[in-house]
Every structure is written in C-alpha cells, then in structure tokens.
C-alpha cells in the first residue's frame, strides 16, 4: 500500500494542473451576476440599432420584422428605471443596416442603411430629438451607405461618417468621408478619404484620445477584405494613413472598443485567436494573453468596456468577462432567448442585452 501513495499524489497534482490550464484557456464561471427578464419589445428590429442616450434610456431604431422586405421606420425606447418599452416617433425613411450615435446635446443621429429590396441603399441622415420624441431630416450624405456604415462622435461633438456600401460598384465599400456638424445640424460632404474602402459589421471606427480615428477591418467589396487592416484618420487634416505596424490577424472582420486608459482593445472575428491592445502613444499592438484564445462570430459579436475596468466580450455564443487588473477571464451563462443578440452598458452600470430580431431582452447585473 505504501508504494502506491506517491503515484496517487502524482495523479492528483497532474489533474489539478490540467484543471488550471483549462480555466486559463476557457475561463471560470462568474459567480456574482444576475439576469433580470424584460417584457418583449414593441417591434422587431432585425439589423436595427440600439443607442444609449444621454438621459440613460435606450433608443431602438428601425430594422426589419424578419425579411428585409419588412424593413420599417419604427422606433421605441427602453426605460431602465421602469424596465419597460414604449413606442416613440418614427423615422421619415424606413431603414436597416444603418448607424446611430448619441450626441452631446442628448439627440441621436441616424445615417444610411438600406430601405429594403426596393430601396437597397440610402444616403439620408435623420436626427432624433430626445425631448420631443420626433425625427427630423437633416439631408443627404455624398454617397449611399448601406451594410453598417460607421458614425463616430468626435471630441468636438461633431460626427464623422465613413464606410458602407454604395451603388454602381458591385457592392464595393467606399473611402469617402462626410461630417455632421452638431451645432448647425448640417452635413459637410467629401471632407476626406480613407486609404481603403470599408463596409460591413466587421469595420470598426474608434475615436482615440488623440482625436484621431482608428479604422480597422471590414470588406472592400463582397469578396475581399479591406487592406490595410488598420489605418488612422485625422479629422483635423482630413487625411488617413496606414499604420506602419498592423494587427497580428491582418485583414478581416474586427470588433474594437476604446478603453479609459487611451488604448483600444480589438480582435479579429471568425478565427480562434487572442485579443490585442493598440496603444496610440507608441503605435504598437500587444497580444492580450490573459484574455485567452477564443472565436468571435463574424456578424454577431462585440466588445464592451465596462465602467469597472473589466472588458466584456460578446462572442455570439457566450459572454467572457476579462479583468485586466487580475489578468483573468470568467464566463457568464447567456439566456437562450438572447444568444444571437448584443449587449450595451447603461449609465447605471447594468448591461442591456437584446436579440433585436426576436424582440427579446434582459438586464445583466454584475457583482463586484
């Protein structure tokens, strides 16, 4: 019996080591979180947008009720205090696959998208007035922008409009940059150009603390990824330049988000890989080994930086909560009804997670 004891100890140590490796690679379950079910939304918003307004409410805009032939102009508001949805004013143009952004004055800008099969590409821009609950037409961009263009809020409160697919080019993304002046509520057309055509949900346009915009990923047309993978747009000089050092993953679909320390966290979608940090102070990319290697859905995934300093990865199958301070990753179970959805952080620190097509939503509260 004595001779067998060392073997038992060795097996125990090996098993414990293996378990630690699995937890490092895949993450440990989060113990301190709570899901709160919500009533169904008023409308289905497939390929619509959801934007947190300055007043803390969420504006859900446009999209389609199933097929793109059922694209609509409807909008509704989610109130996190009462936990209810209510209809608000409708847009002047039905649209899906557009972009929207909350302005500093409390209003929300909506641009581009598709009006359905009969009106496939849109160049119109509208403004939602949070006080009156009504949309007004601002005007037209220089080109049509369907397939998820980017609306990027600048440090001066204006908005840069980039990307999207336009007509007559066999589905090509475009390089043209337009700008919305938030003080005058007017559009300035063709103020600059990107190096590469970019379109689709894999194109991310992230404002840096330097005032420049990091553009990563996207499609140059229906068959090719935008190249270079990353470029920097200067909204003052209205010029864009490719980064001398590119993301490790190269061209492809990307998710990205700005962090409070000035860095950007980004990740190539569709491959099992690690996230990366981009540091604009030294123009360098750094692999985030502590977050683990995993795969993000090319269409239904996002990165959400939280006020706590942690980073939430919505992979399209699960939620991964990465803590940069502890260099650790935890897993959060997703309710079945929102597995194909997305999450945004509310002003109160909760997460609003929704499947816009199924009209399903839930609130996620994370522990300390």
UniProtKB/TrEMBL annotation:
What species was this sequence derived from? Syntrophus gentianae
Q: What is this protein called?
A: Kelch motif-containing protein
Q: Does the keyword Repeat apply?
A: yes
Please give the InterPro entries that the UniProt record associates with this protein.
Answer: Gal_Oxidase_central_sf (IPR037293), Kelch-typ_b-propeller (IPR015915), Kelch_1 (IPR006652), Kelch_domain_containing_8 (IPR051746)
Family matches, as PANTHER family = RING-TYPE DOMAIN-CONTAINING PROTEIN (PTHR46260:SF3)
UniProt keywords (A-Z) are: Kelch repeat, Repeat
Asked if Repeat is a keyword of the record, the answer is: yes
Q: Taxonomically, which superkingdom?
A: Bacteria
């Amino acid at each position: 019996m004595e001779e067998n004891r060392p073997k038992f100890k060795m097996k125990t140590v090996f098993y414990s080591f293996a378990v630690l490796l699995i937890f490092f690679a895949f993450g440990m379950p989060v113990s301190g979180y709570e899901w709160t079910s919500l009533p169904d939304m008023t409308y289905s918003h497939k390929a619509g947008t959801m934007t947190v307004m300055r007043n803390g409410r969420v504006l859900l805009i446009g999209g389609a009720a199933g097929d793109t032939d059922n694209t609509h102009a409807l909008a509704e508001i989610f109130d996190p205090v009462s936990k209810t949805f209510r209809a608000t004013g409708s847009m002047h143009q039905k649209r899906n696959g557009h972009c929207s952004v909350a302005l500093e004055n409390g209003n929300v800008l909506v641009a581009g998208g598709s009006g359905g099969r009969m009106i496939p590409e849109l160049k119109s821009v509208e403004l939602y007035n949070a006080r009156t609950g009504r949309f007004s037409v601002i005007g037209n961009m220089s080109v049509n922008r369907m397939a998820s263009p980017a609306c990027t809020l600048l440090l001066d409160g204006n908005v840069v409009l980039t990307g999207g697919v336009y007509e007559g080019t066999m589905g090509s993304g475009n390089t043209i940059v337009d700008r919305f002046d938030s003080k005058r509520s007017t559009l300035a057309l063709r103020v600059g150009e990107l190096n590469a055509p970019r379109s689709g949900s894999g194109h991310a346009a992230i404002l840096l603390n330097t005032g420049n915009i990091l553009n990563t990923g996207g499609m140059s047309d229906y068959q090719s990824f935008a190249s270079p993978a990353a470029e920097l747009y200067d909204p003052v000089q209205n010029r864009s330049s490719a980064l001398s050092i590119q993301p490790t993953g190269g061209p492809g679909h990307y998710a990205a988000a700005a962090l409070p320390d000035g860095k950007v966290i980004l990740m190539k979608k569709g491959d099992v890989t690690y996230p990366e940090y981009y540091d604009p102070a030294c123009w360098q990319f750094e692999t985030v080994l502590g977050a683990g290697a995993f795969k993000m859905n090319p269409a239904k995934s996002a990165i959400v930086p939280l006020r706590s300093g942690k980073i939430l990865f919505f992979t399209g199958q699960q939620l991964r909560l990465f803590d940069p301070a502890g260099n650790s990753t935890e897993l959060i179970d997703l309710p079945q009804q929102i597995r194909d959805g997305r999450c945004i952080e509310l002003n109160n620190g909760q997460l609003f997670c929704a499947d816009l097509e199924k009209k399903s939503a839930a609130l996620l509260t994370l522990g300390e």
